[in-house]
Structure formats: C-alpha cells, structure tokens
Design goal:
The termini are far apart. The chain is of the alpha+beta class. Strands 1-2-3-5-4 form a five-stranded antiparallel β-sheet. A three-stranded antiparallel β-sheet has the order 6-8-9, covered by helices on one side. It has helices at residues 13-24, 59-62, 65-80, 131-147, 185-200, 247-259, 268-277, 284-311, 316-319, 323-336, 338-349, and strands spanning 28-34, 40-46, 51-56, 98-103, 108-117, 122-123, 209-212, 221-225, 231-236, 243-246.
Length: 355
C-alpha cells in the first residue's frame, strides 16, 4: 500500500449514521465503533432494536470491486448452505455493496460499504473453549472449504492473487524483517523461513487446492455457550482473505490462531486436526509440513503486525493483538521442535470422536 495516503476509512459516528440512512433507509438509534485491522466497522442498532455491522473497506482494497463481490456472494452462498456466516443486506436500490466517495478529512476517497447481519456470540479469543469446541472449529473449517467447491462465479480468477498472507509466500516476510531489528526473535524467524524453503516449498506442488477462507482466526470465529462448559460455533466472520490456495494452509492457519489465547496451546493442534480430518483427510506430505506452516503463519502475523503498527501507530493496540502470545508461542514451538510437537498433535488427533 502507498504510504503517502492513509487508505483507512475514518468516518465519524455522524457520517456513518447518515450513510446508513442514505443507503439502507435505516434509522439508527445506537451506533458504536468495532475494532478492525485497516477497515472500519460500526455496530448499529435500528429502531426495531435489530443489530447490524456497517463495514467500510479501506480505499486500496475497495478498488478491487470484482474481488469484493466474489467475497460477498460467497458469504451468502455459505449461508444458504446452512453455515453460520455473515451476509450483506441489500441497499434500498437492491445492491449488496456500494462504492461511496467519502471525505474523511484528507480528500474524498472511494470506499466499499456493506451492511452485514449481526451474529450472536463472543469471539474464541474472549472465550474459554474446550478441546471438543476446537474439534468443531476444525470440522467447520473443512465443511466451509468443501462447500466452497460448489461455488460458481465468472470472477473466480480474482482469488488467484499473489497474497502476502498466503502460506505459499512465507519467504516474502524477509522483505519486512527490518521491523524486527534488535529483537532476538528475528533469528528464529529467519531459521523458520530457511526450513520452510528447504522442507515445505518443494512439496507445495503436491498439495490439494481450492477456495479457502484463509483467516479462521480467534477473532473471526464466534461461539455461544451450550452446556458443561462447551460451546457451539455461532458465526464465522471476515471473508477478506478468501483465496484459491492449499487446503492444508487452512488447517495450519486455524491451529496457529486457535493457540494464541489458549491456556493449553499444545492441546489445540490435535483437536483442530481431528475435526478437519473428520471431513477431509490430509495426505502424509501435507501432514509432514503442518508444523512449519503453523510457524510460518505465526511469523507472518508477528512481522506484518509489527510493520503495520509502525505505519498506523494510532491503531497499534489492535494491530499488535497477537504479538505477546505469538512471540511466546513461536519460541515455545521452535524450542520443542518439529518431531515432538507433531507427535503430540498426531497422537491427540487420534483420541477424538465426533460427538
């Protein structure tokens, strides 16, 4: 992204209220801001007391309206197949998304605006989930990706983008590593990249591919309590990382993030893997790369989070959400090593039943 221009939308509550009335004919009785990486989210409540999320994309990503349309329709598609995904509401003119020119104090920029339905529950980051809950998360990730195999759109090629966050592009981290200068973790990250290049890259060609959510993190999965301390998944948010990529990457990303705030992070991998494999079994080669792929995502999260926090210091708290846990996790997994961590994950995975 161009550093000279701040691409983030920074609407006032008044601007967001007016925009919602203008596009959706909706009178808001309450509005508040929600956290976001580089977009802007508002929780809005209408006069019927129904909650919605007004989502305004940054102006850089708003340029790619074909991609945003594919993502928006994918959410509706999954919702129609009974999966708990957010969906966009129609504007008064029957559109699922609108490109709006708005001045946030530094000249008019065009932003993609969508009003999403509000899903109940708390994020996994805020919840004390059980390993059985995590099994269900792994299973749901696999069900989403399997269902997306039936998704048809003339614009699917937009999902073949060279994504900075794709786990096939771990070496791209090196271009941002200077933000870690002086941090001892930099050497661990360099070593992870080196092992990834020798161990994972030659095998990627054999991995099965399809459309994946790409960001099943602990802030994008909502859960509600059921009984005995257990939860059920009540929502999957944020399809902005939707891409055509390797299915094993989805498993690795889910494991990496589900470990973040978990008090017993080493118990996470086996649960998520077992849930995933109740729907789609990984090949031996995919399994053999899982450890380094999980480490790769932790490295991406830490380096890119640090990079964006230097660029947007006012949003530092949110951008560095995963930093503390991520550093601890990366060090711990690296110290334990591939063999011991995989033994734990694969042994644990064999103990789950679908209940």
């Amino acid at each position: 992204m161009d550093t000279a221009v701040d691409h983030r939308p920074m609407l006032t509550l008044q601007q967001a209220t007016k925009l919602t009335l203008q596009l959706y004919g909706m009178t808001i009785i309450d509005i508040s801001t929600l956290p976001s990486y580089i977009d802007q989210n508002f929780l809005v409540v209408d006069k019927e007391n129904t909650k919605y999320v007004l989502k305004i994309m940054n102006s850089e990503e708003s340029k790619n309206d074909s991609l945003l349309e594919v993502q928006t329709l994918a959410m509706s598609f999954l919702n129609q197949h009974g999966l708990p995904c957010q969906t966009a509401m129609l504007t008064t003119t029957g559109k699922l998304m609108n490109m709006e020119e708005i001045d946030c104090g530094q000249g008019a920029q065009t932003y993609c605006v969508r009003l999403m339905n509000y899903l109940p529950g708390k994020t996994i980051a805020e919840s004390l989930v059980t390993v059985q809950d995590l099994y269900q998360v792994g299973k749901l990730a696999a069900v989403i990706d399997r269902t997306m195999q039936q998704y048809v759109s003339p614009n699917l090629d937009v999902l073949h983008k060279n994504e900075l966050w794709s786990l096939s592009n771990i070496p791209l981290i090196e271009g941002y590593l200077s933000v870690m200068d002086g941090d001892p973790l930099q050497e661990v990250i360099k070593a992870v990249i080196k092992q990834y290049e020798s161990h994972v890259m030659p095998k990627i060609v054999s991995f099965r591919k399809g459309i994946i959510h790409g960001d099943m993190n602990d802030h994008n999965v909502l859960v509600t309590p059921v009984d005995n301390g257990r939860h059920e998944v009540s929502g999957v948010l944020d399809f902005s990382m939707l891409m055509i990529d390797c299915y094993v990457f989805e498993v690795a990303v889910t494991i990496a993030y589900m470990m973040m705030e978990n008090p017993s992070p080493l118990d996470v991998g086996g649960a998520v893997l077992a849930g995933w494999e109740s729907i789609t079994v990984l090949s031996d080669e995919e399994k053999d790369c899982l450890f380094l792929l999980v480490l790769g995502r932790l490295c991406q999260s830490l380096v890119y989070g640090r990079y964006h926090s230097t660029k947007y210091p006012d949003n530092q708290k949110y951008l560095l959400t995963t930093a503390k846990s991520g550093i601890r996790l990366l060090n711990k997994l690296w110290e334990l090593g591939k063999k011991d961590v995989e033994r734990k994950w694969f042994t644990d995975a064999g103990t789950f039943s679908d209940k």
